[in-house]
Amino acid sequence: MKHEDDKTGMANTPPPYIEEIDITWWNAWAKGREAHEFLIGHVRQLRDRQATRYTNMRKMNSIYEWGFKASTYDSIDEQPLAEYTMFWKAASHTIDTIHAKVFKNRLVPMPLTTGGGALQRKRAEDLGKALCGLYEENEVDALEEDAGYDALICGAGFLKTYVEFGRVKACFVPADDITMDDAEGRYRAPRSLFEQKRMDRYQVYEMYGGDEAWLHGDAETRRRRILECKPAVNQGSVETSREQIDVFEAYHLPSGPGAGDGRMVVVIDNCTLVDVEWKRPRFRHHKMIPMPRRRNSWGLSVMHDLAAPQQEYEWVTRKIQKAHHKMGGSHILAHEASNVTERDLDNEVGTLITWSGNQPPMVFNPDPVSPQTYQYQASLPQTMLSSRGVSQLSARGEIPAGLAHASGKALQVFDDIEAEGLRPFHAARQRLHRSLAQGFIDEMRELLESDEVAQYEVKYHGQNKAFEMVDWNKVIMDEADYVLTIPSINALSQTPAARLEQLQERLNAGLITPEQFKQLDGNPDIQSLDDLDSADEKIILLNLQTMVTEGRYLPPQPFDNLDKYLELAGKFYNLERQKKTPNHLLQLIRDAWSDAKALRDQARAASAPPMAPPAGVEPPMAGPMPEAMVPPGPMAS
Hints:
Strand content: 5-15%
Oligomer: single chain
Distance between the termini: 141 Å
Shape: flat
Structural class: alpha+beta
Largest sheet: 5 strands, antiparallel
């Protein structure tokens, strides 16, 4: 009941009752609600708060494609040709140069065991082959180039691993499709990640309209709501085509092992399509952030730093262009006493001009702009490159004149100096590949644990231009049994002279063998000889590993290099002793060593020259034995 407050004179009305609802998108299922009721509004609220970030991403992509003057256009639009200015995209050239230097080497993570014997090492080696197969199958080289450009332009690049139609896949995800909560990301470890993608309505219908157990709700409701979902909208609330709808994919990491509060959902505007528990301690999305912000999950953009000098470069170039247009012809100075009129001047060749007086007309060609203006304009692109530690010569693919015939060591030092400024980009790329490889393993483990596939094989291309099929069922390992690292071969210089000198130093220091030297050299002229030269060692090690891993005996052959066999078998045996390999497997190695020694001794005895008879003893007679010397014995019938 309302009553008048004596002091304020205001009606004192009891506050309305508000029910406390403790529901978020990731626990809606536990409250009997739908995730889409809470997720879409949450994501759109986050993106509204971070609108400046996504506007900058659009502008920076437009600057890369068309220059600063096109930053008012959306990154999916094209700049009209009528709006032109004579200039070069110096900022884009800087981005391309950095990208080329960072991504010139191919990286594939190599699993290394943290313990165990030959079986674990063999599985780790085969796991590396399986990863190489997935890398080639998904064309990761092309995907990481896109992620690298986003990392340079937008501050962060993303790749994603997932399973589709029974195969493990990877794809590039545009940075502006990703949303993270800045409040969670203050310490650069957000627990929630959202991907908003635009998809064809009927593709969504095919992917999420079935009866599979991992889909949410009944199929009939899902199919009906997909067809009824409102179209996506562009900027300015303009609808796209009828067939395009917004799909939101969200991940919430568990609080800890076995916490049970991790969640992965896929929703559209009016329906929850997927709502399942997420048990992994990491996202499906793998990011490359070369320059992380100090209090944010996102990174600093190189293009953001280049936008201002690119704008200045365009402004100065436009100034020079206008000056040339205005002052771009010859001018004639005629003194008033020369009695020359304008009608005496025309564009004909060889025109006769007469004048009277003591002051003849003369040609006057003023400079359009000051020489310092040309120098200032030329310095801007150089400043953009040098600000990132890249020389102008490197941008043009040249080396200094003094290093044209320099040693490999000098070229290596020159390359190292330039690479120093790009170290954060190289480190970020390595982190991206380790995360991506772990994502492949995570997806494969879950796929093999399900009943969706019985066998999963990939093609691994070896150095001998042949390929082998690698079965993931036989190589998958527990995460605690391996670490992912980047092979040192990727750190070798790409300049032939510098690469050769690096390898020579390692060979002289005993860090690599002559066979490894040939493998790492990469010279196509000698690569074909590598398999032949190293065949003795490879077959011996292969047989020794097979005996330990499969428990079956493979005897040495007379065609083996028996001296090398004894050397390698002895080292292999001692290594397996350190790894606590069971004695019955070690016995196979001991037997092989003994058999190899017997074969070698037998071969040496057969090839040894006959021993000379002792002094005073006549050598045996050649030819048939005399009849008198035939020993007695039974007569042949």
